[in-house]
Specification:
Elements lengths: L1 E9 L9 H5 L5 E4 L2 E4 L9 H5 L5 E12 L8 H11 L6 E3 L4 E2 H9 L5 H8 L10 H10 L24 H8 L5 H12 L12
Antiparallel strand pairs: 1-4, 2-3, 5-6
The structure holds iron/sulfur cluster (SF4) (2 copies).
The site of one iron/sulfur cluster has 14 residues, from helix 1.
Length: 207
């Protein structure tokens, strides 16, 4: 859950229409129309990425008259499905996906079950990824994928695809690195225990 207290004001005299703000907004709240930035205040989650990146200093964060509370309720009847999706992603439902907003994996999955199908829609619904905007993209992509949604690049926002997890390291690589003191299978078993996920074939020792 996030309390959104700020929004960006645009100085149209300074805005050159470069579209940097449009590209960096994690919830696609900025559009450049006729070479001037316009902000959809209802979508804005107050992260200040646009203000920080604007090369012309045309954006200034201002306080909202009233703060907006953003979050998705985790309904008890969603829990069986949430547990299933989290287990598939090897992430415990109570794991904090976004430290900036203290958003847990269960809330991200609740947002997905309510229709969020991209990282931007997850961010819009939960507020996750509107703090540092860096750490939480990978677990969000993994949870979307575990829910059967293929990661795809949204217009504007930049992310670099899901990185490989411990479960995807080929046996040959694990074998080679085990001689140098890497214990991938032990790590996988521990991670599965923490995530409350059933063991995979890999963690049962395919090496
Ligand atoms: S980044 Fe700044 S100059 Fe560029 S379009 Fe946005 S507000 Fe205008
Ligand atoms: S969510 Fe962040 S980047 Fe997007 S308009 Fe609001 S403050 Fe700017």
């Amino acid at each position: 859950m996030k309390v959104v207290a700020m929004y960006p004001e645009v100085d149209l005299g300074k805005c050159t229409g470069c579209r940097t703000c449009e590209r960096v907004c994690p919830v696609l709240a900025v559009k450049v129309v006729e070479k001037k930035a316009t902000v959809d205040i209802d979508r804005c989650r107050g992260c200040a990425a646009c203000e920080q990146r604007c090369p012309s200093y045309a954006l200034t964060m201002a306080r909202r008259a009233e703060p907006v509370h953003v979050g998705v309720a985790v309904e008890p009847d969603m829990m069986p499905m949430i547990r299933q999706i989290c287990a598939r992603a090897r992430i415990h439902p109570e794991y904090i996906v976004c430290y900036c907003t203290a958003t847990r994996a269960e809330e991200v999955v609740a947002a997905i079950l309510k229709g969020a199908a991209t990282p931007e829609e997850v961010s819009l619904a939960t507020g996750a990824r509107t703090g540092c905007k860096v750490e939480c993209i990978q677990p969000i992509l993994r949870l979307l994928e575990a829910a059967g949604i293929a990661p795809r690049r949204a217009e504007g926002w930049q992310w670099y695809g899901r990185t490989a997890t411990a479960w995807e390291i080929p046996s040959e690589v694990k074998r080679r690195f085990s001689k140098r003191g890497f214990y991938f299978d032990d790590d996988i078993k521990l991670l599965e225990k923490v995530a409350g996920a059933p063991p995979t074939e890999q963690s049962c020792g395919d090496v």
